[in-house]
Amino acid sequence: MSVVPSREFDLPGLPAPYFLQVYAYSPPGTPAQTFRYRLQLRERRRVFGVPWWPRLVTRDEVTSYEVSDPKRRRFTVARFLRRLVEEGYVAEGDLPAKALRQR
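^ that's the sequence the OP posted. Answer follows.
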């Protein structure tokens, strides 16, 4: 599993302590060109004042077909952010309006 650069998905910055990451991996038993992308909401944590491995809060998986071009990537990220707002992780006002647009 490898981290995909955030600029490729145009991920917005989230209010502390949350941040977004995208991972790409090829499931076992599938052709090497077939990827799954995992969008993750993570929380930065500190244990006794020391930065610790960020905790996974929630995630969503999509196929390489669903994110094959910039418009589809934007739509996928907007859908994931809308879900985060509905579930109460972040407020809608904390996100740039452009990031929530699905077109």
